[in-house]
């Protein structure tokens, strides 16, 4: 996948705008540059875990965050691991409806960040 800006046709504008408009959504996206569990995101951003799960669900529905798999937590439970799908998102309000352009994260960038984080 290319890292060039591409016009986004899905998800729809109201879903993305609604997700981004909620408190903590931007902080979650910033923190999710590397794979993290909801618990880790909650602790990193210092927000209640229930709020974190709600925001994660909204961001996943909007296509801005993805579940990359599952891993065992420190307590031995299987937990979902999330990472953002975009590095940049631009909203153009000059037409009848908002239009989005985005800079999607590439798999190569994810792999490099994963190696640097080890």
UniProtKB/TrEMBL annotation:
CDD domains: HTH_ARSR (cd00090). Transmembrane segments: none annotated. Pfam families: HTH_20. Gene3D superfamilies: Winged helix-like DNA-binding domain superfamily/Winged helix DNA-binding domain (1.10.10.10). InterPro entries: ArsR-like_HTH (IPR011991), WH-like_DNA-bd_sf (IPR036388), WH_DNA-bd_sf (IPR036390). It comes from the Archaea. This is Transcriptional regulator. It comes from Natronolimnobius baerhuensis. The lineage of its organism: Archaea, Methanobacteriati, Methanobacteriota, Stenosarchaea group, Halobacteria.
